[in-house]
């Protein structure tokens, strides 16, 4: 059995190393997926924000018409549109228009209004058998290429008609399916896009139709050039390494609204494909994201390979050492024949060697596990590991110097804040009496101060001037009823607001204070900064 020990050791360590290399590989793949999903969600937020901005323009136009009871002339509508500076603020918007809703047979009244506003004859077209007519009577920008759109009845086109009929039933915005803008109006150039409709004067539509401008029902609509709209949304710096495809409804080639010019990286295939469903003005869209060649994985694929090779080398070294151990044991057995004393000495030497080998194996495997589970590359491992060791060691160093008895609150604050801000703290920044903390309180408050200081550096004025931060503390009560009251005050020009979502750092602070130390914490977000009050009971 002893002769087989080198082989068994080699196989065991090799299997462990290969298993760890496999875990490292899958961890690398999972990290890449998480990183790309974050990039895809960022791209989706940009798209949704851009669409919301454009739809808000439609809402403001609706408010203008409602305030004037629909009595808006062509010149007034043009002045309102020009004031919006659409080219600079709303790229991708082809224009905004107004449709007059009328029953079939009432076209003459609409044509008279068009003649009055535009100074020229624009008949309602094309002919239709539909019971309703919804011609364009106002549109901006009304350049020469769009003149022929005046009088065009959108109710005659099925895709537009579907959205208009939905807009008839409520006060919500309703998007159309994919359309060719300019098609049917004789425009020289068409664009792939979509329309969004919202009704006006709903109290008279669709049962009562009056030819007077102030009460005739109709629809405001916005026309969007899909390519321009989405390219502007996705071209904001920093550029994202994503290829984007947007479909009206299901992800089908006939429904394609937009596809990024930068192609997806073929090396990833569909392994990192991210699919998102969104609603735009009541219409479902499907958005697909794929990584481009600019996407870099968070950790190198070489790490699992290096880890596997290292494990094989380690297994070989252990087998070799075990072989030498076996030979040494045989030599000790032969020496036993000469003298019992020599045998005892050799046996002790072998036991010590075995002990050291096992300890070495344990340490090497522990380091390998940490590398496999945390490292993205060698440089990041080195820098992040060193920083974490320094942060963790700060509070423990204080306890070590006091033989794990007590640590001073003021010294703890100076060390933690100094590490975060990387500079000497100004006089008067910290004030309060001497307070000695036990081991548990020191560890919990050390992490709490580190998180508060990091947030102040990122979001507060303290990132520009350390003097914007003041920390003071006091003691209330006596004996076993003492309570530490600590006030953390951040002031400056920045207006801090309560975050919509609770981050990990905030949860960590709350858990340390409320559960670990059985205290309370209150945050007061003000116009000129943030006040945090922490109250912690102190044991005698």
TrEMBL record:
Keyword set includes Calcium: no
CHASE domain residues: 68-288
Membrane-traversing stretches: 302-324
Subcellular locations according to the entry: Membrane
Gene3D superfamilies for this protein: CHASE domain, Histidine kinase-like ATPase, C-terminal domain
Enzyme nomenclature, EC number: 2.7.13.3
Classification via Pfam families: CHASE, HWE_HK
Record's keyword terms, sorted: ATP-binding, Kinase, Membrane, Nucleotide-binding, Phosphoprotein, Transferase, Transmembrane, Transmembrane helix
SMART domains in the cross-refs: CHASE (SM01079), HWE_HK (SM00911)
Domain of life the protein comes from: Bacteria
Reactions it catalyzes: ATP + protein L-histidine = ADP + protein N-phospho-L-histidine
Broad class of the protein's primary localization: membrane
PANTHER family xref list: ETHYLENE RESPONSE SENSOR PROTEIN, TWO-COMPONENT SYSTEM SENSOR PROTEIN
Protein name, as recorded: histidine kinase
């Amino acid at each position: 059995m002893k002769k087989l020990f080198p082989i068994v050791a080699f196989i065991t360590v090799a299997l462990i190393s290969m298993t760890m290399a496999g875990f490292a590989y899958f961890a690398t793949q999972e990290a890449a997926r998480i990183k790309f999903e974050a990039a895809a969600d960022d791209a989706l937020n940009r798209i949704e924000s851009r669409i919301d901005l454009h739809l808000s323009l439609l809402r403001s136009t609706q408010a203008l018409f409602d305030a004037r009871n629909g009595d808006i002339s062509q010149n007034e509508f043009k002045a309102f549109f020009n004031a919006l500076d659409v080219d600079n603020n709303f790229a991708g918007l082809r224009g905004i228009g107004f449709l007059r809703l009328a029953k079939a047979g009432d076209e003459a009244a609409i044509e008279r209004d068009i003649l009055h506003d535009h100074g020229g004859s624009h008949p309602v077209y094309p002919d239709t058998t539909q019971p309703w007519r919804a011609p364009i009577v106002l549109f901006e920008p009304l350049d020469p290429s769009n003149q022929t759109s005046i009088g065009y009845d959108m109710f005659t086109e099925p895709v537009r008609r579907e959205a208009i009929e939905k807009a008839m039933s409520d006060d919500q915005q309703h998007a159309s399916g994919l359309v060719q803008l300019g098609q049917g109006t004789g425009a020289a150039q068409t664009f792939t896009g979509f329309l969004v409709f919202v009704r006006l004067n709903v109290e008279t539509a669709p049962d009562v139709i009056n030819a007077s401008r102030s009460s005739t029902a109709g629809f405001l609509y916005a026309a969007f050039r899909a390519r321009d709209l989405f390219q502007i949304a996705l071209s904001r710096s920093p550029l994202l390494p994503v290829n984007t495809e947007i479909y009206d409804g299901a992800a089908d080639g006939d429904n394609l609204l937009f596809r990024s010019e930068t192609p997806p990286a073929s090396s990833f295939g569909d392994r990192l494909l991210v699919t998102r469903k969104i609603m735009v003005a009541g219409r479902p869209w499907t958005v697909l994201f794929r990584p481009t060649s600019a996407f870099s994985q968070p950790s190198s694929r070489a790490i699992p390979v290096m880890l596997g090779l290292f494990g094989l080398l380690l297994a070989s070294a252990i087998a070799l050492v075990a072989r030498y151990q076996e030979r040494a044991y045989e030599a000790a057995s032969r020496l036993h024949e000469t003298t019992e004393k020599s045998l005892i000495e050799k046996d002790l030497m072998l036991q010590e060697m075995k002990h050291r080998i096992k300890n070495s194996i344990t340490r090497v495997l522990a380091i390998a596990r940490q590398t496999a589970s945390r490292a993205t590359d060698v440089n990041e491992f080195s820098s992040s590991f060193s920083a974490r060791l320094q942060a963790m060691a700060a509070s423990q160093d204080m306890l070590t110097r006091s033989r794990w008895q007590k640590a001073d609150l003021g010294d703890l604050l100076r060390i933690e804040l100094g590490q975060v801000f990387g500079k000497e703290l100004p006089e008067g920044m910290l004030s309060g009496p001497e307070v000695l903390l036990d081991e548990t309180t020191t560890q919990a408050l050390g992490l709490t101060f580190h998180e508060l200081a990091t947030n102040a550096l990122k979001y507060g004025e303290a990132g520009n001037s350390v003097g914007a931060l003041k920390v003071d503390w006091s003691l209330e009560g006596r004996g076993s009823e003492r309570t530490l009251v600590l006030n953390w005050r951040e002031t400056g020009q920045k207006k801090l607001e309560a975050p919509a979502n609770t981050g990990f750092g905030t949860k960590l602070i709350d858990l340390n204070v409320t559960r670990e130390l059985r205290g309370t914490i209150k945050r007061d977000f003000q116009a000129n900064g943030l006040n945090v009050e922490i109250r912690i009971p102190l044991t005698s």
